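Re: that chain you flagged

S.,

Sorry for the slow reply, it's been a week of failed gels. I finally had a moment to sit down with the sequence you sent. For the record, here it is as I used it:
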Amino acid sequence: MYASHETYDAIIIGARVAGAATAMLLAKGGARVLLVDSAARIGDTLSTHALMRPAVALLERWGLAEKLVEAGTAVVTNTTFHYDRERISIPLKPVGSLPGLISPRRWLLDPMLVDAAVAAGAEVRLSTRFEGVTTGADGQVSGVVLCDPNGHAYSARCRLLVGADGRVSRVAGAVKAPVLKATPRGAATIYGYFADIPNEGYRWMFSPSLQTGLIPTNDGLHCVFASCPPADFRVRFGDDAGSGLVAAIAATDPDVAEQLASAGAAQRLIRFGGAPGHIRAGAGAGWALVGDAGYFKDPATAHGISDALLDAHRLSGAVLSGAGLRAYVRQRNAHGFEFLQLTTKIGALDWSLETLKLHHQRLSAIINAESAELSDPAELRVAA
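Prediction finished late last night. Pasting the structure tokens below so you have them in one place:
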């Protein structure tokens, strides 16, 4: 049983990408950190896997990118956009020591970040539920109430509570974090993992009311997905999901569809019915939110993991440098609202292909700006 009234510089609820990375960085900076998760182990989860340039740059900076490649994660050196039968292929520049980008499975990436947090000095408690917050007379969060694996409740104090517990965040609810922007439910998605597909990089495919794609990941597999309006999902994938996925790919690339039909899925297909997006207030009196807890959007732009790692980088930098939580929120919001708006438009699947190209051009500009942020000497002083 844990003693009540332990004191930490930061208690982080949620030990996946956003939380584990935040714990690692704060602990590296000398903070006393407790990382908590209700799961008994950190394994696989719903994910697009694709990492954009800022995320790979951060993992490379933290010494983890090469470890992910050594563990069998495919390297992506090209990305192709299919607009119906038109193809635009873009070679990718190296990122540090890597020749391109990576898209690791979550059963590999998340535990690796947890291990890195432990190596940096963070304490980790799994099978531990977050029950609520404690506050001081001024209303500032002063600690948490946790429940251990045996059902015993206890309290712990902290100077900063970080919610990294996903889009339906209990921490956000406990601190009454305001929703600054909400968006409608996005597309419904089905995906699975297929072997024996040549690694030709990221392949993003678009046709009327349909988005599909192939993402090279671990163990020689590709994550293959299809997204459509929720009202169309049962018609496309209800009777025979595998055939429906192949048919969706065939709408833009019949050759790849034939490869998928021959290979067959290595695991069962996974369904995601779509969910509303949001940006919540990123911080308040003694608390902050990272990852999906603070900022969730449709997976149509495959930027969720990248956002989570950027949040960890920005929050830890703002805290350790003394810049404060407002600096973190300012950085997070600099592109967040526009990115959410563009993602919502793309995820609605009601665009013309010419309009979609314009959305993608603007997204590329934002991602380039995020990458530039990581190489800005002034920003590095804040995030050191």
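What I noticed first: Confidence is low (pLDDT under 50) at residues 377-384.

Talk soon,
D.
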